[in-house]
Design a protein that fits this description.
The chain is of the alpha/beta class. The protein is about 40% helix and about 15% strand. The protein is built from 13 helices and 10 strands.
């Protein structure tokens, strides 16, 4: 039976941090992507709360959290997740990160490995340069000013119509039309636009993604890891899954056929089943400082074989 999840907030470092929380048991933290909020997890949080303590924050600058002129870097977000866990008195978590949230999950594992039991990367950012053209356009100097046009009903209608057309034409971006429309609708106010622009420019420029998880992912080689990707992802290409798994040979890959950038919204029940199975069948990571230091000094070692991709069966 699904368990209730409620919204709460705490003031940390002077800023209100909103989050959803519910259930009890081993903790899972769900980290959303850029421009989104904890609401993106609405379909799966009550399912996971049957067996776990679930925590889904609104990142600073997103959702119902404050939107100050502040640090919107990957490292800054990871620090925010650490601080929220400390305030909630949660010592260790399984991290589930979507898109930008996947990059934040990996950064948290690099910075604070003692906090992390497992990692689930969903349509993960930071595995290659490729990214949707509309995200590249949003990094241009005048983009925040152009986003002001979203306050006009005709502009928002135009975006909705364009996404609906892409869906009718069976374009990959059209697969996620409802969710992309939902995210665009959350941007009309000034603080949200500025926070979105600052966050995006910290990880993307006109040439594509500028932050990678691949150079340091060997530091998390002892962490059980699962990647979930839709094979029709029009935001972060599905081909990045192979690049990520080549650098993370311990990671399993679950492919959602026909799904786009939000596989957990396309099929919440399957998503929950896959992640629950992963948690049940893996042992939480243990962190040893001496081993970690040795690995840091020696580096990643020989490059893994990209052909050794493991795909989980359905």
């Amino acid at each position: 039976m699904a368990r209730a999840v409620e919204q709460q907030s705490r003031v940390i470092h002077g800023y209100r941090r909103a989050y959803r929380i519910g259930g009890e048991g081993s903790a899972i933290m769900f980290i959303h992507g850029i421009g989104d909020s904890s609401r993106t997890w609405d379909d799966v949080l009550p399912l996971f709360a049957e067996n776990h303590l679930v925590i889904a924050p609104d990142l600073l600058g997103h959702g119902d959290s404050d939107k100050p002129r502040a640090d919107y870097s990957i490292g800054g977000f990871a620090n925010g997740m650490r601080d929220l866990l400390a305030v909630l008195d949660v010592e260790r978590v399984t991290l589930v990160g979507h898109s930008l949230g996947g990059g934040i999950a990996m950064q948290l594992a690099y910075q604070y490995p003692q906090l992390v039991d497992r990692i689930v990367l969903v349509s993960n950012g930071g595995s290659g340069n490729g990214v949707s053209t509309w995200l590249r356009l949003a990094t241009l100097p005048l983009a925040p000013e152009l986003l002001k046009l979203l306050r006009l009903p005709i502009s928002r209608t135009g975006v909705s119509v364009s996404l609906a057309l892409l869906r009718r034409l069976d374009h990959d971006l059209g697969v996620d039309a409802p969710d992309l429309t939902r995210i665009v609708d959350a941007l009309p106010d000034g603080p949200s636009r500025q926070a979105f622009a600052r966050t995006l420019r910290a990880v993307v420029d006109w040439h594509g993604q500028v932050v990678t998880m691949l150079d340091r992912c060997y530091l998390a080689s002892d962490v059980p890891m699962l990647m979930i990707w839709g094979d029709r992802d029009g935001v972060i290409p599905y081909r990045h899954a192979g690049q990520a798994q080549a650098a993370l040979p311990q990671a399993a890959l679950e492919v959602f056929d026909g799904a786009g950038h939000f596989p957990f919204r396309s099929d919440p029940e399957r998503f929950t089943t896959v992640v629950e199975r992963f948690i049940r069948e893996t042992v939480p990571a243990t962190w040893d400082q001496q081993t970690w230091q040795t690995r840091l000094r020696t580096g990643p070692g020989p490059e893994p074989d990209p052909a050794a991709t493991q795909v989980l069966s359905e």
